[in-house]
What does this fold into?
Amino acid sequence: MPTWTIGAVEITRIIEIEDDSMPAEVVLPDARPEAVLPIEWLQPHFITADGRLLTSIQALLVASEGKRIVIDTCLGNDKPRAVPQWNQRQGAFLDHLAAAGFPRERVDYVVCTHLHPDHVGWNTLLENGSWVPTFPNARYLFTAADWDHVSRQPVTPLGDYCGDSVRPIVDAGLADLVRPDHRITGEVRLESTPGHSPGHVSVRIVSAGEEAVVTGDLMHHPCQIARPDWCSPFDFDPQQALATRQRFLAEQAGRPVLVIGTHFATPAAGRIVDSDGGLRLETSPDK
Ligand SMILES: [Zn+2]
It folds into this structure.
């Protein structure tokens, strides 16, 4: 059963992790409890009663024009990572995909909004000691700018996520290095939202007069709708990320666009409305 329906497009949300374990001081240092608690609409979905951030690592499955599209592949299993919750995971993610009608052999496209370890993990899986593509019949869409950046960078303290989750896809000939405005189907296209990474993209879905957008990491948490000036230390270019976030929010505000936050906790989506001079996320009933 899809989580959302946008015209003829069905979107299903697959959660790998959802909890309050992501420390604000790491991902959004300005979002301290005393700073987020006054933003009343963040409770109960997006912060705890004592002001800790609730976040999610999740994939969005998009069914459009007979094509199965996976947006962001989360953390993956068996990956050596410095973050304890990310390290050597043994999750049932692929079972959840199959139960949603997305068995891995039948996925047509994999979109990585950017090439960070919490968005590329299930690109590969461990088979006989080597990393092989999880989705053998898919084209994996990476922006050329992000591949250029990540393929040159030294191994980061987080782990060799390029080596175990991105480069094997390129080596297998399954990667398409695309422009940030690449169109996947008549209903689904990439949209350039740079800053968090050089070639960062969001995904715009328009069908039968209805519209949704998957943010990627142009925001990490709904508190940035109220406070777009709160930046993440993980932004490649914080000034560009801020400009992208402000432009994005201005463009969606007051419009009937379902904004699906890649790291937003359940219900993960809503419409951006302007109330009392500030922006907030107006969520639909939980699904
Ligand atoms: Zn992320």
Summary: Residues 238-252 form the longest helix (15 residues). The chain has a mean pLDDT of 96.
